[in-house]
Design goal:
The structure is a homodimer of 474-residue chains. The first copy, chain A, has helices at residues 13-23, 40-59, 73-77, 80-86, 112-122, 167-187, 234-239, 263-272, 298-313, 327-336, 347-351, 374-399, 407-416, 429-436, and strands at 27-29, 36-38, 63-64, 70-72, 91-96, 99-107, 131-140, 154-164, 194-197, 209-216, 222-232, 242-244, 250-252, 254-261, 289-294, 318-320, 341-346, 354-359, 365-369, 401-403, 420-425, 442-446, 466-471. Chain A is an alpha+beta fold. In chain A, α13 links the parallel β20 (401-403) and β21. At the A-B interface, β2, α2, β3, β4 and β5 of A face β2, α2, β3, β4 and β5 of B.
């Protein structure tokens, strides 16, 4: 039985995606153009993401702060590349109350400028360094199109901004944070990612270089899922962040920034979910288990409460759906919402001393004895689901990754069965532009330390410098 | 020995306050006029507040969501009183990128309009109700003056917005949330509060009525610390939120909203802290215990690590200060930062099998045997500190609360030793305005169900209706 509120993903992927967003009550369009509302189910996933990432950040010595949401135009302009990159897409505040402002301010599209300005006032000596700060907030970019979680004017994210006394330490931070993102995607979201370096034309405005994690969605479209930037001394020179080094000389500081956003919820949908609704990896699901009592005789309620208490006490996030809806409705709702494990407790099963356990990912139903060690069973099952989702995602990603040696191959792939394409590149921007003509194919990242698959650039045939991952992007 | 970076609070309270904010690294002024930066120590306190309140909200059936940060002017204008109340103090976005917007939007000063607009699209039947949503965010009000935590253009808060199928249920929610705030202040912040209802002129723009918790600061100035509003059907009528009730009739819904903000950090400072810096109640302190090893011989480090591990494993938030600073410097720093318990482990004490334990609130130093059950000891000590801070705050508040029967008494008090004044009021706004002429004395709240202390209004002498709490406010 298919959920009627959801278009099949093989028929219309874009429609399927927005159907899931709506049916699972993740987000809603608002009457504020280009902005979405995170509804309880969507926000709860964002909270779980925040919890795990925040723990990982703190374990690696980062501290949270909060910067203003507005940036005066002058402050924004100090670093040339940044303002050029972001000026066309910021929202400008020009009035406070009924008064015209002397200087307009933009709502932060990102906060390098604010952090750098702050660091310039507090950094004096190498003893003050490193400062490793992060903030959780929303930012605003004046996009034209809206696609919930993937692209909207306002989105929620974290932005880490660090300042160091040496290039080596800052570069280590840049790599270290990318590694945390990779780990989070693999271990919590069960999404495999490719890591690499952005090309010059795809890097963050103002960065020396940008590292990225790239994931592949069910439909073969790639999603830039997290980035970590090394700034060198660009911002420290523009914002005058100097410290007295160990030789008692003034030196410009070395900086990084890194971020992931509510876009990750979009990735969860497009990698794991199916025509019956959301599928969530147990390690990130806000609610891991639902118990649905069928009928309300004493034995049903007794077993329901016993199992609920045992699971809850073991730290599993569990709830009972004892609303007045029909069992069938409750099953479908739990499926749409992506609850990883469903336990059905009914009179008939109980007569045979059985309960039913259904896993959301495969929809497989198991009949188990009522005296099964439920905590061990559910923990084992959740581990299996988590692993299976990851394995399935890797297999699909690998099946959709192609090595190409000729442009015609790329064209054939991107037109008929898009995915990741690995191909050699000479390093010229012209060749990137030529690739873009093929269905908008863009470089996702340079695969560093990867074995070259050819000597020549796939576009111009000149000597190749890098093995590059290419894809059609969201 | 007094901390030299901090002005004495009895000499210059305002200067003392900002000295604490700076010396304890709670917040910093930014180059964005009217906006502050929450530094790591300040943000960590805010995170602790969020954790406890968020738990209390969720335990009472509330869910978190995120609404857009912008409000189109038309949406803002639908409820007349609200726009009149907030229009003079909002920031207007008039441009997106390089284009003038067709309709300007304000940065949310509060989000009743956005929640109501959303509720109008999702509420259909009494079966959908109640919806009890909350969001954690920052809001913007174009204030002229800045006082860190107490008043700034941008501040951080939570705003709960709920919608119900009956007046009774909505009023119960309004009272219930006020009660959660009261409990949080008393049990976590160790700050006693007076609860009551705002007068017509002091209530929230657009509310039927506003309930409030009011706290008294060390200098006798009162601080509105949290409010809970009952809206009746005002917003549901303006935003068209109708539901089919049990009689199958369309009915306008009943709404509430309630909020507390980063202002609470200001209250913590002004109620508990002293000339040596911040004093934090252990139940809200991000770091509860610091261990300072003096010297680094084997026995010192052995005991330091043992005690650290024991405390940490018991769930106490503890850290070791093994930086290169001098012990005296570390002691002062722990004091300024308000770490509730300091454990000093030094060679000389250890020769007598002793360690030193210092409580921040009284600065009392205890010598204890090295084999003291450190977990029980510290837990007991933290409980004592928490209780003592609360008792001391209540005593001071009571000593600064006066019953007045004549205006001259109010004048004498507010001029020389301000505090809370209890006095009778006839209910006329004119009399409130007269009180304001006395040092800006304002009604804090109507003390409902309180025994009247007089028959006549303290201002006009006409028949009194209410016992009112008055004060000078932040």
């Amino acid at each position: 039985m298919k959920n009627k509120a959801i278009t099949s993903r093989d028929i219309d992927f874009a429609k399927w995606y927005t159907d899931i967003v709506t049916a699972a009550h993740l987000a809603s369009y608002s009457n504020v153009k280009g902005c979405i509302i995170l509804e309880p189910n969507g926000y709860a996933i964002w909270e779980r993401m925040q919890q795990e990432l925040d723990r990982m950040f703190k374990e690696t010595g980062h501290q949270n702060v909060a910067m203003p949401m507005l940036i005066p135009e002058n402050l924004m302009k100090k670093e040339g590349e940044l303002i050029n990159g972001f000026a066309p897409e910021v929202a400008w505040v020009t009035m406070g109350g009924s008064k015209q402002l002397e200087e307009r301010m933009c709502i932060r599209p990102t906060s390098e400028t604010l952090f750098s300005d702050y660091y310039s006032t507090v950094v004096k000596s190498y003893r003050d360094l490193p400062l490793k700060y992060n903030q959780w907030c929303s930012v605003m970019r004046w996009e034209k199109e809206t696609r919930p979680f993937l692209r909207s004017r306002e989105f929620w994210w974290q932005e880490g901004h660090t300042v160091h006394s040496s290039q080596e330490e800052a570069e280590k931070e840049t790599k270290g944070m990318l590694n945390i993102y990779r780990k989070f995607f693999e271990e919590y979201l069960a999404i495999p990612v490719v890591t690499g370096k952005k090309t010059e034309s795809e890097k963050f405005a103002g960065a020396d270089y940008t590292l990225t994690i790239e994931a592949l969605m069910y439909n073969g479209v790639s999603l830039q899922s997290g980035t970590s930037h090394y700034f060198g001394q660009r911002f420290s020179k523009a914002y005058d962040i100097k410290f007295l080094n160990k030789n008692n000389e003034l030196e410009y500081a070395y900086q990084t920034s890194w971020g992931v956003s509510s876009r990750m919820i979009g990735a969860l949908i497009m990698v794991h979910s199916d025509d019956n609704g959301l599928v969530l990896p147990p390690k990130i699901a806000p609610k891991q288990v639902v118990i649905i009592p069928i009928g309300n005789d004493e034995k049903v309620m007794e077993n329901t409460n016993r199992i609920y208490n045992e699971l809850r006490e073991s730290g599993i996030s569990v709830y009972i759906d004892d609303s007045e809806k029909s069992p069938g409705f409750k099953f479908a709702e739990a499926e749409v919402n992506g609850i990883p494990v469903r336990i059905e407790i009914g009179t008939r099963d109980l007569e045979n001393n059985k309960i039913s356990i259904v896993r959301r990912d495969t929809r497989e139903k198991m009949l188990e004895p009522t005296d099964v060690n439920i905590v061990n069973y559910v923990k084992g099952l959740m581990k299996d689901i988590q692993n299976d989702l990851y394995t399935k995602a890797i297999e699909r990603r690998n099946n959709q990754t192609y090595e190409c040696h000729k442009l015609e191959e790329v064209e054939e792939i991107m037109k008929n069965r898009p995915g990741f394409v690995k191909a050699m590149w000479c390093g010229d921007h012209e060749c990137e532009l030529s690739m873009k003509e093929i269905q908008g194919t863009k470089s996702r990242c340079i695969l560093e330390n990867a074995e070259h698959i050819d000597d020549k650039c796939i576009v111009c045939g000149k000597n190749a410098k890098h093995l590059v991952l290419w894809g059609i992007q969201y």
